[in-house]
Amino acid sequence: MNFRSLRWVHWIPAILAAVLLLPAAATAQPTADTSAAAPSVPAKASNKPEGAQSSDYVGSETCKACHEEQYNSWEKSPHWKTTLDTKGGPSHQGCEGCHGPGSEHVAGGGDVTKIFTFQKVSAKVINERCMTCHEGGTQHMNAINSVHAKNDVSCIACHSPHHATQPEFLLTKAQPELCYGCHLAQKATFEMPFHHRVNERLVQCSDCHNPHGTVEAKQVRTSAAQDAVCFTCHADKRGPFVYEHEPIKVEGCQTCHTPHGSPNPHMLKTSNVNQLCLSCHTSSFANAPGIPSFHNQAAQYQACTLCHVQVHGSNVDHWYFR
Question: Is 63 in contact with 102 (CB distance < 8 Å)?
């Protein structure tokens, strides 16, 4: 072995030491402090005041000593079940789940400034307090789009945890009287000769509208297939059809019908069916075919639907004859 080969032997221990120490050096690198750079995630709204301790909650039985009437009505409501749910702690149980911790209120001899009350706060504050529990419900998924909330209508305008007259949903009144309290214009339409039977208690306002908000205009619901809510009952009109009547898919049923009530049969917008059809089927409107020259609108052709019987769509005929 020559001198040059022996020279590399002296470097072998140093090379092995460097290889063994590399993983340790990598793991020993200081972790960057990302707490300042990471964007802060807003905390979920809670009925628990900042800094409140478990000892600040006195329990519903303590509230009953002074508020027996309210307690007895609340005890019969679905909210009473919160006393059995210990997952969220005392801030989500019983009376204090809505009104906050009551220890200072009790110590102050019933001082109303020491506890949350719903009488003198804004609709926004009330709704936020209710949504701390109800935001996950299927009926509240689009609460951000609620027209009621945007017009400062609070949850307790329709619901009453203590004085509900309806066991379902703790409503202050039964439908449709509850809705008529604000929507007087719609009340008149349900008195029309042809109407959805809301006043007869066969249909409810909430069957078609979600008062807590939807992505549709007028807080209208959609069917299970995300079609028009009308198809929930009128399933035979849903299709799909080989020959679709385009306005139904594009503009909806209200193109021809008034949904609440009408003086015309089938709740049509006009009394003369031909006038309704001709509002689209002229030679100058969109691409809807105009009437043939032999359609003289005399008695034989008084109503378009005498021949075009499948106006909602057909699987066999382009002209909806059958």
Answer: yes
Find the helix or strand (DSSP H, E) in which 244 lies.
Answer: strand 243-244
Is residue 23 a part of any domain in this protein?
no
Domain that holds residue 86: 55-114
The model's pLDDT over 203-225, given as tens digits with 9 standing for 90+, comes to 999 999 999 999 888 999 987 66
Token code pair at residue 36: 């300042």
Residues 240, 195, single domain; the answer is no
CA atoms within 13 A on the CB side of 243: 13
Q: Please work out, in degrees rounded to the nearest 5, the angle formed at the alpha carbon of residue 258 by the alpha carbons of 252 and 264.
A: 130
Two tokens at 30? 């200081």
Residues 79 and 97 in one domain: yes
* Single pTM value for the model: 0.76
172 domain-assigned = yes
- Inform me whether the pLDDT recorded for 177 exceeds 90: yes
CA distance 178 to 158: 7
Range in 18-32, 104-118, 226-240 the model is least confident about: 18-32
Assigned domain for 186 exists: yes
Residue 36 has a pLDDT of 41
Residue 8 lies in a domain: no
Give first-to-last CA distance, the chain, whole Å: 104
- Give strand pairing partners of 159: 171
Among 167, 184, 219, the domain-final residue is 219
CA-based nearest residue to 83, from 70, 105, 68, 98: 98
Which of the four pLDDT bands, split at 50, 70 and 90, describes residue 297?
low
Total of domains in the chain: 3
**Using CA atoms, how far apart are residues 24 and 179, in angstroms rounded to an integer?**
71
Helix (H, G, I), strand (E, B) or coil at 283: coil
The fraction of the chain above a pLDDT of 90, given in percent, is 54
Q: Chain-centre distance of CA 106, in angstroms?
A: 38
